[in-house]
Amino acid sequence: MKIMKGLEPKPSCPSCASSCLKKNKTIRCFLFLFDTHTDAQGRPYRQTNSLQLTKKLLLFYKTHQTQDKSVIPMPKLYLEEYRKQLSGKRIFVACREGLLRDHFEEIVADLKFLEKQGVRPVLFHNMSNRFANHRHFKELALKLPGSEIVRIPSDHDFYDDVLNHETGIEKILFLERKFLVDANGNRINAISTVKAREKDITFETLTANINFKRNLDQICKKIEQGKIGRVHILSAAKQAIKNELFTIEGSGTLIANNFFETFSCVSSDDDVEIIDGILKIYKKQGYLKTRSREYIQSRRNNFYIVRIDGIVVGCAEKIRLNPETAELGALAISSRFRNQQIGLLLIRSFLNQMKADGYSRVISLTNNQKLSWMYLDLGFRHESPADLKFRQDQSPMVYMYIIDLKR
How far is CA 224 from CA 198, 219, 228, 230, in A? Predict the structure, then answer.
C-alpha cells in the first residue's frame, strides 16, 4: 500500500510499518502515525498547527477509510417519525461533571440537535462553581438558548436530585461511561424494571460509579410508581443522544414498562423503508435470505408489522402455499426489542390473522435455535408433511415447523 509522502513509517517503528502494509488496518496506522511521529520541526503531529499537515492527514483518512471493512455504518435516523413523538416535550439529560467536561462539544451538539427537532431539553450537571468552569457555563447559556440548564451542587447526591427534581417526566437520559451490559459483555438494548433487577450486571465497571446499583433500584421504583416514564442509560459519546432517540436500534440501554404495542398490515412507504432496514440487519447476520425493497413494496399487502409507540420494530411476511396453508416468513425484530416478548406478540398476532383469513395451518422454516424453541413453546411441531415437500425441497437444509389453527 502506498503511504502518503510525509507520513512514511520510520525505520524505528516496525509495528507501524507492518500495519501500513495491511489495507484493513489503515485507520490504526493513521492514528499511530498521528500520535507517535513528528513533523519537520520535530514536533508531534498531534501538537502541530500546520494547515498543510492537517490536509495531508484528512486526505490520508478519507482515501483509506472506505477500504477498512470493519468500519461500522452510521445508524439510520428516522427524524420525521420520532419528531412527531418528541416535539414539544421536555427531556431530562443528566451528565456528571467529569463526563461533561470530557465530552462537552459532543453533548452540546446533541442538545442543539434536539432543540432543532422541537424538543425542550433540560440539562442537569454538577460542575462546581469554580472560575475554571465559568467558560463552560457561558457556552451552555450561549449555545443552548432553547434548553434549561440545572446545576446541582457538587455536595448533593447527583442522582437523587435528578430523579426527584420533578414527577411525571417522560424521559431521563443518563450519560455515563458505558451503557448497561449483560454477563457476556453484550449491550442490553431494552429491559423492564423486573428484568433489570434479575440481570447479572456489574454496575461498577459499567459506570465508574460504585453507587449506581442503588441508583438503578431507585430508577426502577420511580418507573413502577409512574413518576418517570422511561430512563435511558447511554455511553457519553458523539451523537449518542441523537442515535438513542432517533434510531430504531438506539445507542444505549432503555429501562421501561410502558411500551404501547400494535399489530397491523404495512400501510405506507415509510413502513416499507423501515422493514427493509430491519431485514438487511438479519440478512447480514445470516438469518434470512435477501429481500429487496422492490420485493417488499410489491408484496406490501402480505407484510405485517409490530409497532412500539407508533414506530415499526418488527415484521413478518405471509406466503400463501395453498388454500389451507400459509407460511410465516421474514420474521425479524429490531435488536433493541429482542428478548422483550415482541417476537411472541408478533407470532401470536400473525397466527390469529391467518386464522381470520381462513387458513387452517401455518408453517415456518428456520435454523435459528432461539426461534425454534419459541415455535415449540407456542405449539408448533417439527414436521415436514408430504404435501409440503415442494416447499421443503426449496430449503432442504432448513427445519420446518408447523402448527394447526383451531377453528
Answer: 15, 9, 8, 10
